[in-house]
Amino acid sequence: LIAFPFEKERSAMTQPAIDNLGIPPLAGICTYESGANPGYSVETSVNLLRRYNYLKTQLNLILAAHLPRTPEWEVKCALSLHLWLDAEHAATIRARVAEMREPPLGLDKVPDARLETWLNEVIRAENTVELLIGAYRVARTELIRTLERHLAQTNPLADYPTRRVLRHMLLEEKETLDWGEAALEALDPNGTSAAWETHLRAYLTAAGGLEGNAEVPSVSLPTPRADGRSYDMGSEVRRDARFRDNFNASALIDVYYNDPALSSEERIYALLYKRLREMDVPEWMAPIIFNTKGKPFQYYLDLSRQLWDECRHAMMGEVGLARDGIPFYRYPLDLKSSASLNANFSPLDAHVVLWGIEQSLMARETGKQYEWTIARDGRDDLAATYQDYDWADEVLHAQIGRRWLQSEFADTATMHQYAQEVITRWLEDTKTFAQFSDQKPWWQDFLREARSSRAALERAARNVPEPQALAADD
Length: 474
Ligand SMILES: [Fe+2]
Ligand SMILES: [Fe+2]
Description:
The protein has 19 helices and no strands. It is mostly helical and 474 residues long. The site of one fe (ii) ion has 4 residues, from α16.
């Protein structure tokens, strides 16, 4: 039997005397009864969509503003995903608004100054818990409540395309909030930041909620953190206390995977480590997204997607090492790249560096295809899958870079030349970070540990006793 989404509603309604031959009528989307509810006008629906679009584009920026200096790795991972989902949701909302006969679209305008005031407080979170309270518990709970109301109110037949957009968005929004609540439970089990939640809820209430109700209960607003100036995300890059020796660059990972004299096992570990190290790219892309103002929406959508891809690449490294029993934070993960770019380079220059690196990865002999062949020839199926998708992602990234940077330069040759200059300056600048580490070699320790824990895991999987246990029996 096919389960219809409206099955319950169907059986509860008084059936009109219409012969549908036993076939679900109205394409299965609603009943005659719910379809006969007038619901929201086009104008009401569009006004709400404009507000969702504003919230989503602002959440995208708020998460980007906090990503580099949020220390917890797992939070960086989720911020990367969620800021991309926020941009994706904004994209589908914007496309729907454009279909709805209500020009001017005004999708890059602030629809309500009260919402702006609220979000100017949300972005001023001073630590991870405050960020999660504002951008998850307060904002996303309100969004879910509003979406559910919108879905219940708007006409399921007349406004079907909006409902489809909202239903898909709601699904991901609930997963996002679930993650946020679980993370808050872990980071703040005693709810020590209740005052910040109250602060933000007061501003949301004063905004008439996300729906922008005209009648607002009188609330006394706490002193705002915003002081009228635009928010400065700073340039700091942080990692949590599990990570040690963050500027140790003693392992020449890029040399190791390229070296045919080394075992394919070692070369593949170097590739997995190279993936893991990629967390610095979300850290350096987030300020590009946040600090580059006035671009078309597609720019932010493209860069958010790329940011999320780079974070996935880091997580591929995380899983690859976990497979062999090594936690991702055990050995140094050099973060000089993002530390240098964020502190000492403009957003445009940081983007040019990224593009310069990525287009060089397209070379068949040395680039992403070559990395994939190392994993494939080493018969490491997981590493091969990761390199395969990493390669596909990087082709997309080289295109995104070209799309948005080309217009900044007179011609391609000028762009290439400029990229070379900035990359040279950047490599020089990263050297100053080496002094923050004593550069103690660690690669051979890592290899030894990875080999022995991998062997132990393989024995455990085949149910073979540990070598020591055998010796004791003898
Ligand atoms: Fe990448
Ligand atoms: Fe990339």
